[in-house]
Amino acid sequence: MQDKENTTHFGFKEIPTDKKVDAVAEVFHSVAAKYDIMNDLMSGGIHRLWKRHTISQSGVRAGQKVLDIAGGTGDLTAKFSRLVGQSGQVVLADINDSMLKVGRDKLANLGIVGNVQYVQANAEELPFPDNTFDCITIAFGLRNVTDKSKALASMQRVLKPGGRLLVLEFSKPETECVSQIYDQYSFRLLPFMGKVIANDAESYRYLAESIRMHPDQETLKGMMQEVGFERVTYQNMTGGIVALHKGFKF
Fold this sequence. Notes:
The protein is built from nine helices and nine strands. Helix 7 (176-198) runs antiparallel to helix 8 (201-213). Strand 3, helix 4 (75-84) and strand 4 form a beta-alpha-beta unit. The protein is of the alpha/beta class and 250 residues long. The chain has helices at residues 20-31, 35-43, 46-56, 75-84, 97-109, 148-158, 176-198, 201-213, 217-226; strands at 7-10, 13-16, 65-69, 89-94, 116-120, 133-139, 159-170, 230-237, 242-248.
């Protein structure tokens, strides 16, 4: 038996804490090439509406600095790049180099260059000075972080006073009916789609399991408050399948 203090969850499995980063990395190395296609198929395109709403809540203006953590293939970064303009800057940070490469190539093909920087970074130890960014986002990435409280504290540190953090993540459905339907979809259809489209059922089974292990709405709100965020609120979308948490640094 392994000491519980030295293990963490990887989906429904318990693995050594120091192995989780590599285990998650393997998942995203595997899914990177098909990530955008699978996002559209898995959500019926609704993920674009979730992300659009996140952008609308960011308050980002021309000339500001934005950090998009776990930015992956760059959906949020692309929109932030246009908002901050050439006088601003967006940093797309991701721990996984395969995802970073896909995101960089995608944005370059869209002509988004000049005000975007790419950084391979662990959310728990962000390599930026204190009080650097006006806005920080992490979309569908926090659930893959080993020590979520440490990551949230790191985000709070590099955020400027007056800045805001937006956490877009899968969460706990609001009703039992939605929860049961979502379970059937997640554990039956999702791995099947992963097998057919990406030739990888196991990675998508992990993604479904990681959602169930993520803190619910109120728990995450409390975690944000504990590391110093203020005026923390959240908004459920699609019946609570997804929630957008917002917190400020004052």
